[in-house]
Structure formats: structure tokens, C-alpha cells
Amino acid sequence: MTETAEIVIFGTGSFAARILFDIAATAPEPVRVAIAGRNAERLDWLRVAANARAAIFERPVTVIARRADVSSTAAAAEVISAMSPSVVVQAASAQPSSVISAQGNAWTRLVAEGGLSATAVFNALISMRVAEAIKAERPQGQLVNCCYADVVNSLIAARGLPIACGVGNVAILVTVFAGELGIRKSGPLKVLAHYQTITPFRRPASERKGPVPRVWIDGSEIEDVYAKFAGVKLTAEPVIDVSGANGVPLMLAMAAGRDCLAHVPGPNGLPGGYPVALRAGRLELDLPPGLSPEDAIRWNARFEEECGMVVGSDGQVHYTGALHDAFHRVSPAVAKGFHVRDLEAVSREMEERRTRLLATS
Predict the structure, then answer these.
(1) In Å, how far from its chain's centre is CA 108?
(2) 191 bridge partner residues
(3) From CA 356, how far away is CA 232, in angstroms rounded?
(4) What are phi and psi of 220, to 5 degrees?
């Protein structure tokens, strides 16, 4: 008899492990989770460790492992077809998240100068294939993309593929802010944030400048966000202790068919991050009073319009600002952008460029 799972997680790295382990420690109702990836030894350990955590915390969670090449649409489709999940969590990427803090080569300098949208094509590659597999095998399933969702989810949506949301970014800020304020429930705190608003919080409070997230407490907007959260400082490297965990309550609600309040990047393919509500299996914006969806989307979209990657309604992708200039110095052809249907070909060309830049000190 084929085993099924309500949640499938693609990827075996530290981010996927954090999500899996937090599901095992917190799930309030019975849930089966499948972890899928190529490394058999790693898969076996994740399965054993996650089931051990479920036993430690006395949670009704069962974890199984499935070996699969997560970079293959066919392999992803096979897992999805066999497992029949309600939720697919895609945490495998062709671009290591360490690029945020890494130094010492021309590629990391380009990313530091032009922004993380330089990595969007690499982050989108596997997520796009998983979305294709969901559309073919489980169209009612919810895709949660963990790979740079502020921008990548717009690429997925532009291809006409299913995408529910991402994890991290805006949710990092709202959860660390809530932690500082002593808020321990969803609802009172609402944050509108693009990934570019996170960078200042990696610096000491006295050195913060640049774009600021918008924050409301009980419907009232905070005027000086930097002053209010001067005591909040993020690590220079990816903060997976928070970002991996903050998607777990929403994933569990999706799997159980419960309603839920959350903050996510890229809901339904929108740019940037928003407060949302899961109601009857659908994600909707859950904005503070006085803020329209149009204004919220426009606020988030302007970040990539000024510097980053913009996905047009026609599927054409444009690089802007400092990122366009950085790419142009390396390759005028890359800087011109591309159409979303050409993502695979573009990724191969960009991989050649990245390989050369990584080898250049």
C-alpha cells in the first residue's frame, strides 16, 4: 500500500530541517510529513531525528522519507502523485543562502552591490519545476516556496503556475518585533515589508538607514520603527532559527483545513510581504484599517522597480537600478532581462557567468 502524507517537504538542507523539526515539535493535530531529497543518509537522519522530536514533545506527527532528485520535474511529480499532499514545501535551491553574508569573490560582490534579486533565477529554477509538478499531479495542493519568495513567486505566477506563498522575510520582522513587545498571538501586530527592509536590522541601531517596514499595533501605525525596535538586531547570516519556524503554523493550518492569521512573502504571487488570513483554504490579504490592497501592493512593488527585478504582466522580466548596472558590467545580454518562459535557458547562461565570477577574487 502506498504511503501518503499531508505535507511534503522538498530539500534536506538546514532550512528544510528547521521546518521539519518544528513541525514535529509543535503540530497540534495528527499529520504525516514526507521529506524528499537526493541524499539517502541525510534523509534517513532527518526522518529518525524528526520522529524522535515528535516523541519527545508527544506530538501526533509521523515522518517518512522519499529519495528523489528534487531538481527534476518528473521526480517531483512522482513524489507528489504518490503522496497526495495538501501542502508542498519547496526548500531546495540552486543558490546557497550563505551568499547573504559570504565575501571574497566577484559573485558575492555583485550580489552585495545589486541586491538579492541577482539570485532570483537560481532560486526560481527548482521551485518552478515543483510548481509544474503540482499543476500536473495535485492542482488542489498548496505550494509554499521557501526560496526568495518576495520575487520568485511573481515569476511562478507569471508562468501560470500555482503558488500560495513563501516563508520568512516579512515574517522574520513581525515575529522578532512581536517577541520584543511581548505579543504572543497573531492579530495585534501587522507588518508590511519587502525583503530589502530587513538589511538595516542586520546593522547596529546607530547605523541603520534605508527602507523601513511599515508596522501597525492594534490598527495604529508606528511612526519611528527604527527607534521602537532599536533593540532588535538580526544576524549577518540567514536567520533560519526564525525564518524556517515562522511558516510552520500556516503549513499546519493548511494541512488541517484550519483558518490562520500569518505574515508571508509573495502571497498568490504578489511582490513583497504582507499580513494574510487563511480562510476556507484560501489566502487573502489581511491589511490594517485604511490600507487598500492596491496601496499595499504598490508600496511593495516600488522596491524592485527602483532596484531589482520586475516581472511584467506580459511575462517579461526587467532588471532595474543598481542590479541592472551590475549585470550590464558583466554581461549586457543578461542585463536586458528575459521572458519567464525562457527561464531554463537563462539559468544555464547565468550559471556560466556565476561560475566565472565565483572563481574571480
Answers:
(1) 20
(2) 215
(3) 37
(4) -105, 130
Position 98 scores a pLDDT of 63
The gap between the terminal CA atoms of the chain, to the nearest Å, is 54
pLDDT tens digits for 114-150? 999 999 999 999 999 999 999 999 999 999 999 999 9
Start-end of H helices in the chain: 14-26, 40-56, 73-83, 106-114, 120-137, 149-158, 170-181, 225-228, 240-243, 248-256, 293-306, 321-330, 332-335, 343-358
Quote the CA–CA distance of 225 and 232 in Å, as a whole number: 11
| Predicted local confidence at residue 1, as pLDDT | 46
pTM: 0.95
Say how far apart CA 218 and CA 134 lie, in whole Å.
Answer: 38
Region of residue 284 (phi > 0: left; psi between -120 and 50: alpha; otherwise: beta): beta
**Under DSSP, is residue 183 helix (H, G, I), strand (E, B) or coil?**
coil
C-alpha cell at 131: 510548481
pLDDT digits (tens, 9 = 90+) for 91-105: 998 776 666 666 789
